[in-house]
Design brief:
heterodimer, A: 515 residues, mainly alpha, three-stranded antiparallel beta sheet, two-stranded antiparallel sheet, 21 helices, 5 strands, 72% helix, 3% strand, B: mainly alpha, globular
Chain lengths: 515, 584
């Protein structure tokens, strides 16, 4: 209205701050063009190279350009501040590793994890024909880049509408990626459908919540909402439901109980590297967005939302830990593990201060590395041509393939939060944030369920090391792609446990939200 | 003031480097080289440890800790790498450094050099454990202590789980989960303690955390957080149940390192952290803890008497002995404190002797079931002799090392808590029962007979069934309980053979007063040279400390006095000068 009175003025965009996102979206579109014009036999190499270079370029622009141009830009709808940079950088680095794992071909002609004909009915002549013609599935790379773009926008969004757009941009490619598994395609498509339906449902909740908040504050901008909340207008009757519905949408992406039920199905059905990508990167982006929405827009309503987050955190830890005990599929086990870990992070989030922000950053980074490596290792263990995801098929792996077993054991020890691994550092950071703000009892519940979760991780080690090999489980020899990804993740998992100081410094320096 | 040479870091690094070397040996060479390299590394550590002892200034210095090294580690959390030792830590480190090479030697043939990496990994894991032992006893930064405290679990977990007996999976997981739960609860206390402390970049140093004024309830909650972890570790009734499984399913050498050294971290932690940092809360909790300690003493001893599995029996004796140690710590008199400190050292050697000699026996008899033995004194007289000495040390016979410490604990306790002292004395009587019954059932009676009939009719006694069965003097076959699910590859303690059943039947006949059936006497070799070295070292230490404990007491006395000052406790009015340690 004001704009109408004074005439149209173009929104100023601080390009130096948003250039990493522009690079990603640009390369993603380039990927679509490559898919259309580059000959089939070259597509794989070109796509992989372009995607990795794109991620690298985005990361470099993030460091050399965006870092020095923190700004509230695009009319307040994008905020590039410390936490945004940190979450964006994390997404880029983790995606780089995830793309390496996804590009793994082992000795198949196409990318191993993905079907060659995603649109066909499983077992149909169309599928057979696509395989016979040597169809590739290189469209996964632009899809991943679009998802990465959404994940970068998600924690940098400055108003609820941008949050919603980012949510959709990151979700839609993930729905497709989930359905592209080469093996057990029906399960994969079912997972995709489930994920899509539930995701669409939760998006609707979010949108409705955003509308209610708009009705209260007269704006979708976080700063304006925060001002309206602290001014107080007495219309809490629409604000509080609005906050809760917004929370539902975000907690769904986090995978918190009771909005977690898609997680095990989606992780189990999705191509294994995609599951790793989802578990690691989606969590980064979703916690980034959650922190910004609740720390920037709604801190004035903390008495209302903190108890809810506390309850959700407890439920998430309890359900995640207890149900993971009963899992027999390694991918579902890792899915429930991701739920439990999300619960631990929520314990810290309740604290509502900078320490919680830096703790969350540290946690999602360390968890991301470990989880991408864990899924990459799962993808290597095969039985009868399929991935050997049943736990019993992992028995005796320590004897038959000591390196894979040792790396998996390292990840399990890290997930269990044993000192000298990165996730212990993270757990310490997040729980000390909670203890520092009267959440000692919550942290105590957290550690008790850490012990329950530890049982699950320990069980995997027991199977690998203390049981005799059975069946025809073999471990494929990976190419350098997976090799690099897993090595980097393993080295960081140990290094960030022994010398976490640089990471902690960085997380602390980039933990101040710009309002 | 303090020596500039980083004694403790070097002491921790030698075993670690040796472990890496042992681990990295190519499999072709490892079969011959891994064990000698490991042994040389651990002996070198011991030599350096003794050299450090000569540099240690006993009693003259005002500082609580010596050989202090401080480096910044995780600035943001306020964590420093600070190590330093007082007398108690020195004594426990030296004890560990002796026990490791002894255990390595005893474990020489535990894992066959079969061309795989199993054997060298076994020795590498034990050496890694030695590094953590040095670290955990010398850490003077609470966070650093916690890191060692938890990291120690992983090598033990693999030692039990990969190399143990039939039920090793169960035992390993149970051990790890109990310890992790205790550790995680302590983690919360560690975090909270930092928040109550001065904070900053060195907020976890013990020197910054002792003598805080925490307020009544915060101090008590923190105390409980720490104490829970240490009680699990120690292990005290009722959180002791992981110990018998872990100790009996692990190899004897593992059991020695676990019970002899790692469990000491529990009682060590009670003194260093519970008493010294939370004196008020410690006094508040004393009545309950003393009751728990007394239950541990009596319960551990009674259950030990009822065991049929030799290794479980020895494990339960440790529950009883740890009860004494905890009792002495919380009785809070100078005498009882000194007794407990000394007891920790003595118990390490005594229990090591019991486990290792028991292991020698099991390696010959191929069973952990006491009922499968009898009359072995006649075939293995030397083993019987050293076993008896170890047993007598466990029952605190005067002249043995444990006598002095147990006596000090009881006298010290009696000064303040008459009833508790009286109840604890019952434990001494029960100790005589479980030790002498064990010796009688295993070593006395007619000589065991070799298997001639190939009698396979008798089932195996329930050595591995995990339940504390009664020792029923019945016919060998009538108490045939199911053994654990033996997978056949680690059958050294569980492999089924008719010999054992025959012996078992024979022993039972003998105890029922029958004459033994005629037959060829079982031919078992007595201790070989390697085993004689192990036995000789342990017996020598047991007897030496029994007659001349002064060097150890001298090292311990300043530590005891510091503890007493920090808890602001003085001995009860009519101070009974029963021993030299009472003179301040």
């Amino acid at each position: 209205m004001i704009a109408a009175a004074t005439g149209f003025s173009q929104t100023k965009i601080e390009y130096a701050a948003v250039v990493p996102m522009l690079v990603i979206f640009g390369v993603a579109m380039l990927g679509v063009v490559i898919e259309a014009f580059v000959p089939r036999r070259l597509r794989y190499v070109v796509q992989v190279a372009v995607t990795l270079l794109g991620l690298l370029a985005a990361f470099l622009t993030l460091i050399f350009s965006a870092r020095d141009h923190k700004a509230v830009t695009a009319g307040g709808s994008v905020v590039i501040d410390g936490p945004a940079l940190m979450f964006q950088g994390t997404v880029l680095v983790l995606s780089f590793l995830a793309v390496l794992v996804m590009a793994e071909r082992f000795d198949t002609p196409s990318i191993d994890a993905f079907t060659q004909s995603g649109a066909s009915v499983p077992g149909s002549p169309m599928e057979t024909n696509a395989v016979r013609l040597g169809a590739t599935s290189t469209e996964v790379f632009p899809l991943v880049l679009f998802a990465v773009g959404g994940m970068m926008l998600f924690p940098a969004a400055g108003d609820l509408l941008t949050v919603f757009i980012a949510l959709e941009v990151l979700s839609l490619p993930l729905y497709i990626l989930t359905g592209l598994a080469r093996r057990r395609r029906l399960l994969s498509q079912e997972a995709s459908m489930k994920y899509f339906l539930l995701g669409a449902f939760s998006s609707a909740f979010f949108l409705f919540g955003a509308a209610l908040v708009f009705g209260y504050a007269g704006s979708l901008n976080f700063g304006t909402i925060a001002a309206a909340v602290s001014a107080g207008s007495g219309r809490d009757g629409i604000l509080i439901p609005g906050i809760f519905l917004v929370a539902v949408g975000l907690l769904f992406k986090i995978g918190a109980v009771p909005f977690h039920s898609w997680t095990p199905d989606a992780y189990q059905g999705a191509p294994t590297p995609v599951a790793g990508f989802m578990a690691a990167c989606t969590k980064v982006a979703a916690f980034g967005a959650f922190l910004r929405v609740f720390y920037v827009a709604f801190p004035g309503m903390k008495w209302n939302w903190q108890p809810i987050v506390v309850v959700v955190a407890i439920l998430t830890m309890v359900v995640g830990a207890v149900l993971s005990v009963t899992q027999t599929d390694i991918k579902r086990l890792l899915a429930y593990s991701s739920i439990t870990q999300a619960g631990f992070i929520l314990v810290g989030v309740v604290a509502l201060d900078r320490q919680a922000v830096s703790g969350t950053i540290v946690y999602v980074i360390t968890y991301g590395f470990a989880t991408i490596a864990a899924f990459a290792l799962v993808a290597m263990v095969r039985s009868g041509g399929n991935e050997a995801t049943h736990l019993s098929q992992w028995a005796g792996l320590g004897k038959t393939s000591p390196v894979v077993a040792a790396l998996m054991a390292l990840m399990m020890i890290a997930f269990a939060g044993i000192p000298l691994t990165s996730l212990f550092t993270a757990k310490y950071a997040i729980f000390s944030a909670a203890v520092g703000h009267g959440g000692t009892w919550l942290a105590l519940i957290g550690v008790i369920f850490s012990a329950v979760a530890a049982f699950v991780y320990v069980r995997v080690i027991v199977l690998m090391y203390f049981s005799e090999p059975t069946g025809d489980t073999v471990v494929l020899t990976p190419s350098a792609l997976t090799g690099i990804a897993v090595t980097v993740a393993a080295v960081l998992t140990v290094a960030l446990g022994v010398f976490p100081t640089p990471l902690l410094d960085m997380a602390h320096n980039y933990s101040q939200f710009m309002r | 003031m303090t020596s500039s040479f980083p004694w403790l870091t070097v002491l921790g690094l030698i075993p670690l480097v040796t472990a890496v070397v042992v681990f990295a040996l190519p499999t072709g060479v490892a079969g011959r080289a891994a064990r000698p390299v490991a042994l040389v590394g651990s002996v070198a550590t011991l030599v350096v440890g003794i050299a450090m002892w000569t540099q240690y200034k006993g009693g003259t210095t005002k500082q609580q800790f010596q050989f202090v090294e401080t480096h910044e580690w995780i600035r943001q959390f306020g964590v420093s790498y600070q190590v330093g030792i007082d007398g108690l830590a020195l004594a426990l480190i030296l004890m560990s450094l002796v026990l490791v090479p002894v255990s390595l030697l005893a474990a020489w043939r535990d894992v066959p050099a079969d061309g795989t990496r199993r054997m060298q990994n076994y020795f590498a894991l034990m050496l890694v454990l030695e590094t953590f032992m040095v670290g955990v006893f010398s850490a003077t930064d609470v966070f650093l202590f916690y890191v060692f405290f938890e990291a120690m679990l992983i090598p033990v977990y693999f030692l039990i789980g990969s190399y143990g007996g039939a039920r090793r999976q169960y035992a390993a997981v149970k051990f790890l989960l109990f310890s992790l739960l205790g550790g995680f609860v302590m983690l919360i206390a560690v975090i909270a303690l930092y928040n109550y402390g001065p904070g900053g970049h060195q907020g976890f140093l013990l020197s910054n955390l002792t003598g805080l004024h925490l307020g009544t309830w915060p101090g008590r909650w923190l105390f409980l957080g720490f104490f829970f972890a240490f009680a699990v570790k120690a292990p005290m009734w009722p959180v002791h149940t992981w110990l018998p499984d872990a100790a009996s399913e692990g190899r004897p050498a593992t059991a020695v390192l676990l019970v002899g050294v790692l469990d000491k971290v529990g009682t060590f932690g009670m003194i260093r952290f519970c008493l010294q940092m939370f004196p008020e809360a410690s006094k508040w909790a004393t009545p309950v803890i003393i009751v728990l300690a007394l239950i541990s003493i009596i319960y551990g001893a009674l259950v030990a008497i009822g065991q049929t599995d030799m290794m479980r029996l020895i494990a339960y004796t440790s529950v009883s002995h740890f009860g004494f140690i905890v009792l002495g710590i919380f009785a809070m008199t100078t005498t009882s404190q000194a007794g407990s400190d000394l007891y920790m050292v003595n118990h390490g050697f005594t229990t090591a002797a019991l486990f290792l000699f028991g292991g020698f026996l099991v390696a010959r008899g191929r069973s952990r079931d006491i009922r499968d033995y009898g009359g072995w004194q006649r075939v293995t007289p030397m083993l019987a002799g050293v076993f008896l000495i170890a047993g007598l040390s466990a029952l605190s016979l005067p002249g043995m090392n444990s006598f002095i410490s147990e006596f000090l604990v009881m006298v010290g306790t009696f000064q303040r808590y008459k009833v508790a002292g009286g109840v604890a004395a019952l434990g001494v009587i029960l100790a005589a029962l479980y030790v002498l019954l064990l010796y009688k059932n295993v070593f006395t009676g007619p000589a065991p007979l070799a298997d001639e009939s190939g009698d396979g009719g008798h089932g195996e006694h329930g050595g591995g069934d995990g339940r504390a069965g009664e020792l029923v003097p019945a016919g060998g076959g009538s108490v045939a309980t199911q053994a654990g699910d033996d997978d056949g590859s680690h059958a050294s303690v569980h492999g089924d053979s008719g010999t054992r059943s025959e012996q078992g039947a024979n022993e039972d006949h003998a105890s029922a007063g029958h004459t033994a059936p005629c037959g060829r006497v079982l031919a078992v070799p007595d201790l070989d040279l390697r085993e004689r070295v192990v036995a000789g070292v342990l017996v020598a230490i047991i007897v030496a400390l029994g007659f001349y404990p002064k060097p150890v007491l001298d090292v311990l006395r300043p530590a005891t006095n510091v503890t007493m000052n920090l808890v602001h406790m003085h001995d009860p009015a009519p101070s009974v000068p029963t021993s030299q340690v009472n003179s301040k």
